[in-house]
Design goal:
2 domains, alpha+beta, 8-stranded mixed β-sheet, about 25% helix, FAD/NAD(P)-binding domain, Flavocytochrome C3, Chain A, domain 1, about 475 residues, 13 helices, single chain
């Protein structure tokens, strides 16, 4: 019998598999996707938010624990488990050497990635290189990896894991029979439900305009996170955390593919101009804070607009100050022509821009700092980086909500155990997006998802191995955190 079964194939699952195997347990990893699409949402990532008290290799200056915590507290509005959050924060300061030992390489941030040279360590080759390195290391250590293997059911005995069930399926044109896989312990790391259109519709419902907002969502993450295992765990009575409508939701290019657009579909010029809805009206402060701390609120903001549609508008002054999008913007030499091309109400659009221009109080523009360029007497205000849009050509980028991962998940504790009626399972653990809602009640800040996944993936792997007699004692908290 397998000692530890890992269900999932992203960063958290791989960290769990590697730690359990390093502890001496036999490990099998089940990945729902084909090999070419392995890695879950981790393949679309590019960095890890890291606590550090002094400069460390690719990280400059310092990013101490309390500042990290305050950044997380701000974006979540306080909807976070401080104990679990601080575990992830502290673990982020010391995990990189372990990551390097499994083939992950780091590099300084690209010049267009503003404000994160101090806080985020970037993966050389991005998330795809990271998951490939982990898979290579896992296989080298003897972890058995199976692809095209969607777990459809979990067998429990009074909260204790017994077996995973895999349904009948077609793989490369061949019929594969249903299976039952027993293991002495299990780690659930199979992601959220963002690719389940029916579940999104159920969660978001209809708005006051009679629209079904989720019908217009794009999924910038993996198409394989359909929430089958999460739904089953809810049915089995696992304790739950999070709001099904909360997610890492970004305003992305409306022309992006329905699934797997990844990070390149993001539009990063929002703070350099204004954003209008399809009625030609602004609806939120584009200069509220640095973009890495605010980019993930804009998907939800756009989701609240008519048709779940908006447009980021800039002028020539912004060019060269942000990472260029994949698709070119709509360009025009006049605001009237831009409105015509976008099919926006021309008079209202021009008035919106002119009102904004007239309200700008330009001081010393500096997009690398919280500058003193702001609006006055305008609602909503723009509190930083406010400059009149007066230099043609003008550019527009269409925006829609892009869901990376959902926050509804399984409640857990510092051991990463799954809970049933407040009682921790002795051999069933959870990591990654399936438990990220414990830390992320809402909002997001760049790189925190990988910090949570790495920390709790490693904890889950250690604890799963320990629950079946390998490595530390499951109750030995001090040893566990020294290891992780």
């Amino acid at each position: 019998m397998i000692d530890v079964l890992i269900i999932g194939g992203g960063n958290a699952a791989l960290c769990a598999a590697l730690m359990a195997r390093e502890a001496g347990a036999s490990v099998m990893l089940l990945e729902a996707s084909p090999k070419a699409w392995r890695g879950g949402n981790s393949q679309h990532t590019r960095n890890l938010r890291c606590m550090h008290d002094e400069p460390q290799d690719v990280l400059i200056d310092a990013y101490p624990e309390e500042e990290y915590w305050q950044d997380l507290l701000k974006v979540t509005g306080g909807i976070t488990d401080e104990k679990l959050a601080r575990i992830a924060i502290r673990a982020s300061s010391s995990c990189r050497d372990w990551m390097r030992s499994h083939g992950v390489h780091f590099q300084p941030p690209l010049s267009g990635a503003l404000h994160v040279a101090r806080t985020n360590a970037f993966f050389m080759g991005g998330g795809k290189a990271l998951v490939n390195a982990y898979f290579r290391s896992a296989e080298r250590l003897g972890v058995k990896v199976r692809y095209n293997t969607q777990v459809t059911d979990i067998e429990l005995d009074d909260g204790k894991f017994v077996a995973a069930h895999i349904g009948e399926r077609e793989v490369d044109g061949q019929h594969v029979a249903a299976e039952r896989i027993e293991a002495r312990a299990c780690v659930l790391a199979a992601g959220g439900f963002e690719s389940n259109r029916e579940w999104l519709r159920e969660a978001w419902g209809q708005n006051e305009r009679g629209e079904w907002p989720s019908d217009n969502f794009l999924i910038r993450g993996t198409r394989f996170n359909t929430g089958i295992l999460l739904r089953r765990m809810l049915d089995l009575g696992a304790d739950v955390t999070g709001d099904p409508t909360q997610a890492h939701m970004v305003a992305i290019d409306a022309r992006a593919p329905l699934y797997d657009g990844g990070i390149c579909t993001r539009i990063d010029c929002v703070s350099l101009g204004v954003v209008v809805n399809r009625d030609g009206e602004r609806f939120y402060d584009e200069g509220e804070d640095f973009w890495p701390k605010r980019y993930a609120i804009w998907g939800r903001l756009v989701a609240g607009q008519p048709g779940q549609q908006a447009y980021s508008i800039i002028d020539q002054q912004a060019i060269g100050r942000f990472m260029p999008p994949v698709f070119p913007g709509t360009a025009a030499n006049t605001l009237q022509d831009l409105a015509r091309q976008l099919k926006l109400p021309q008079a209202q659009f021009v008035k919106t821009i002119e009102d904004y221009n007239n309200a700008c109080r330009v001081g010393t523009f500096d997009h690398t700092a919280l500058d003193d360029c702001h609006t006055q007497g305008l609602t909503p205000a723009k509190t930083h980086w406010a400059r009149p849009l007066v230099k043609p050509p003008f550019y527009a980028y269409p925006l829609k909500p892009g869901v990376t991962f959902t926050y509804l998940g399984l409640a857990t504790d510092e051991t990463a155990a799954v809970h049933f009626n407040g009682k921790a399972s002795p051999n069933l653990f959870v990591a990654g997006e399936m438990m990220a809602g414990n830390v992320l009640g809402k909002g997001y800040t760049a790189g925190i998802g990988m910090a949570i996944g790495t920390a709790f993936g490693r904890i889950a792997g250690v604890q799963a191995a320990a629950s079946v007699g390998f490595g530390i004692s499951p109750a030995n908290t001090e040893s566990r955190h020294a290891t992780v």
